Amino acid sequence: MSKKVVLGQVLSNEQIEKDVYKMVIKQPEAAKSAAPGQFVNLYTKSESMLLPRPISICEIGEETLTLVYGVVGKGTLEFSSYNVGDDIKLTTALGNGFTPAEAHTHVLVGGGIGVPPLVELAKHLEGEKIAVIGFREAPFLQDRLEELGVKVYIATDSGAHGFKGNVVELMESEGILGDYYYSCGPKPMLRALAGFCGAKGKPVQVSLEERMGCGYGACVGCVCKTKAANEVGYEQKKVCKDGPVFLGSEVAW
Predict the structure, then answer these.
(1) Euclidean distance between CA atoms 61 and 70, whole angstroms
(2) Binding positions for [2Fe-2S] cluster
(3) I want to staple 120 with a disulfide (CB 3.0 to 4.6 A). Which of 36, 65, 145, 224 is the partner?
(4) Does the global pTM surpass 0.70?
């Protein structure tokens, strides 16, 4: 779908964890365009920040989008200050998202701010659903996943909540095994999970996080390597347009 910039209205914007906010935007056209695993570009009001910020979609309503984002720079810091009723400029949904598979047991694996897109995905999966989610310190969105019938396992780097360690270590420790895997989070986590799934002969879809300039394939600022039968053994694909979701087996890690 081609990019379209639209004007939305902030219905709520609340802090749910340290430096993590949940914003609900009313924008019917953007909501109708969206699917699990896609993202939108949010535009700041400051003329000093021309590039939009890509934010993954957490939940899709009839006329609303719920976004959960981390405050990591000036742009997201500005978004965190928005109040109910404020206007916000955004695009309709961008990128290729997750493809729900037919499976008996689905395993959703998320790391930090990679957890939000798994919430909408969970609504579209039939069968048993397990989420293995990792954080540095405090978890978030685990309650919402449980409301959707997902069995949740938590790992934290500090051990303050749940298992002390990373998500792959947690899955190995608890013997968590499914038929199909989906994941979003930091690249080292995705690489480790792709190796875990490859060793067990299980398919996995991974949502890659890369810095994006435009968000729709024009600037070539977010390329990744995917395996290819050519002289160099790989080809460059654009995370924003060809992804952000790829099969773990096709990514040249």
Answers:
(1) 21
(2) 214, 219, 222, 240
(3) 36
(4) yes
